Amino acid sequence: MSQPAIRLEDVSFAYEKEKVLEDISLTVDRGEFLGIIGPNGSGKSTLVKLILHLLKPQKGKIEVFGESIEFLKDRSVIGYVSQKANTFQRGFPATVREVVASGLYGKLGLFRWMRKQDWEKVDQAIEQVGLTSLAHRNMGKLSGGQQQRAFIARALVSDPQLLILDEPTVGVDAKSQEQLYELLTHLHQQKQLTLLLVTHDIYSILSVVDRMACLNKRLLFYGTIDEFAKHDQEILSQLFGEGHGTLSITLSKGQKQLV
């Protein structure tokens, strides 16, 4: 039996005396698409930073593909797209191709030149996200949704086994959000990529994820959409307060759909 992609065991973290995460335990299987939802200040981004080893937990342990995150030999197995990726100003001097190529620098090292096969990988990653026609376009001239896809290509170019996205739809219009979720669904289903998506937009992710983790400093729910549907009112009240309402969810022939 293969090691899970991510395993957290009793993970806690605090900024000085402010507790942000308390006793978080969960397992993400290889090839799974996990959505993490919660209100602002619930600890979602902190959890991502812990998995990326940008922060160290005060308690508990974190493993990625069976290795302690502290001693993970090959960090290129994790691709990451931050919530502020699509914030380039007009006139930023890098092209899409150059930004995507920067995703290989960690593997190549500081003093290695890009080879022909490296540029081929860059072009393949750009094609994967549907930006081939914009490969030589200045990043600052792209829409927010196009910029976000370029940063997904940057994360993909090093062939990660796990892709983490932190609030990827912030500042992105509705049509681009739909295209982004279609892309992530393709990566999940066709490439068998393990995905971890952090968002506050519960309505959008229900149709694409395999499981959900509902976080508000503690893990309030962790399970499938079927399981969530049975307790949605209670869970949403704990997350967002009373009066948030309920979600009517139907599942037909394996398809997750809001009604």
From TrEMBL:
Q: A Gene Ontology MF term for this entry? A: ATP binding
Q: Which domain of life is it from?
A: Bacteria
Asked whether the UniProt record includes Chloroplast among its keywords, one would answer no
Kindly state which keywords UniProt assigns to this record, in alphabetical order.
ATP-binding, Nucleotide-binding, Transport
| Domain annotation ABC transporter: ranges | 6-241
PROSITE patterns linked to this entry? ABC_TRANSPORTER_1, ABC_TRANSPORTER_2
Tell me if Cell membrane is a UniProt keyword of this record.
Answer: no
Supply the InterPro entries for this chain.
AAA+_ATPase (IPR003593), ABC_transporter-like_ATP-bd (IPR003439), ABC_transporter-like_CS (IPR017871), Metal_Ion_Import_ABC (IPR050153), P-loop_NTPase (IPR027417)
Q: What SMART domains does this protein's entry cite?
A: AAA
- Record-stated family: Belongs to the ABC transporter superfamily.
Protein name in UniProt:
Zinc transport system ATP-binding protein
Origin species, per record, is Thermoflavimicrobium dichotomicum
